[in-house]
Amino acid sequence: MNSSWKLLVVRGIDIRIHLTFPLILVFAAMSYGQVGGVSGAVFGIVSVLLLFVLVTLHELGHSFAALHYGIPVRQIVLLPIGGLAQLERMPEKPQQELVVAAAGPAVNVVLAVVMGLIAWLLNIPFQAGLQTYSLTFTTLFSFLLIYNVILAVFNLLPAFPMDGGRMLRALLAMWLRYEQATAVAVNIGRVVAVFMGFWAILNGALFMSLIALFIFVAGSQELAAIRWQSRLRRSGYGHAVREVFSPVVGALGPYDSLRQALAERMRGWQSDFPVADNGRYIGFVTEDGLLRAANLYGPDALIYAAMSPDVRPVSPHTDLLDVMGQMARLRVWALPVVEYGRLLGMITYRQIQEFIRSTPGWSQDDTPRIVGA
Fold it and tell me: Do 145 and 52 share a domain, yes or no?
């Protein structure tokens, strides 16, 4: 995710903070400040920061479980509405998905037991974090204990794509087809999201309404993607990049400047560019990366400043399903096509869409959209 800052690395997993994360701190300061003044605002900021330590541990639970099954984890991103562990792929077996989904809440349950024992030994009242907003160990510890339990219970709601919804999908997938199990879990999640949204509107709970919207939209998007993948697999097409990609592509040289790349972009027919030296592939520049680099380093910087290290080229033999998956993970609209180190061309999301729509039996609604690219 380009719009985030790296905080630290744990077992090769980047922990990143999304650029919108400060919104939750501002919201906490305003909410607690209305009741406790300046000290309340400070308490709100500190308590929310500590709460997101628990959120990070929760996401690490998912990540470590995924690594156990050999599933790479790209990064963990902390957003105002919670955390998101980005896996390279979903677990292949329902039992694996069940374990990965349950690992996050399990971390909170273990923390709740340990923290509850500490509170009992130190005679810390559980309700202290809800009664006063002073920066004391007792108040902060009680606050974290209460909200850690809330975090565990909330994530166990059967609202796909939350943990409880994914656990439900995994259980259903043991008896139903994966697509059917996802549809049931998503529809249940939609109902939960609607009730959650109404409650949030009636009670003025801004972030709860955002979570409800996320559940409804994200679940619908994942269902559309899984339906598309299932239809592609059932059709037995197995089409590869070589059938779709364009060998006619404007490539940039290693010594071109960002100004030259911007000029090419302004011509309108291409917005993403491979970088090559006498036909040898070097890197790839996305439109977002180009604009961001130009703002940071100025238009006279070399094109290296805009190349994306996350984008990996695909070969002419790569399956279109894998290409779409990589595009969705990276939120890009195009990928370079390379074989034996030589740049052959570029494949775009639009080319794949047009290819699929031209195939008999497909409609426009059969294909998922890349959202947030």
Answer: yes
Half-sphere exposure of 139 (CA within 13 A, CB side): 13
> Looking at the domain assignment, is residue 104 inside a domain?
yes
Res. 40 pLDDT band, cuts 50 70 90: confident
Instruction: Mark 256-287 as b/e (b = at least 16 C-beta within 10 Å).
Output: bbbebbeebbeeeebbbbbbbeeeebbbbbbb
* Domain region containing 174: 158-236
What is the edge-to-edge ordering of all strands in the sheet holding 73-79?
4-10, 13-18, 73-79, 82-87
Residue pLDDT, tens place only, 49-101: 999 999 999 999 999 999 999 888 888 999 888 888 988 777 878 999 999 99
Domain-located, residue 246: yes
Would you state the pLDDT for residue 269? 74
Counting other chains too, the contacts that 178-185 makes at CB distance below 8 Å and 24 or more residues apart are 178/94, 178/226, 178/230, 179/226, 179/227, 179/230, 181/94, 182/222, 182/223, 182/226, 183/223, 185/158, 185/160, 185/219
Nearest of 169, 206, 211, 205 to residue 187 by alpha carbon: 169
Contact 241, 323 (CB under 8 A): yes
Burial of 40 (0-12, 13-18, 19+ CB in 10 A): buried
Q: What is the pLDDT of residues 280-325, one digit of tens each?
A: 999 999 988 898 898 889 989 999 999 988 898 999 998 887 888 7
| Residue 317, both tokens | 């033999």
Looking at the structure, tell me whether residues 7 and 134 fall in a common domain.
yes
Q: Does residue 113 sit within a domain?
A: yes
- Which of 215, 236, 257 is the endpoint of a domain? 236
| Spatial CB neighbours of 86, under 8 Å, sequence gap ≥ 6 | 1, 73, 74, 75, 76, 77, 329
Structural tokens at position 43: 């308490």
Contact 54, 61 (CB under 8 A): no
Examine the domain organization and report whether 22 and 122 are in the same domain: yes
Q: In the structure, what pLDDT confidence band is assigned to residue 362 with cuts at 50, 70 and 90?
A: very low
Q: How far apart are CA 320 and CA 315, in angstroms?
A: 11
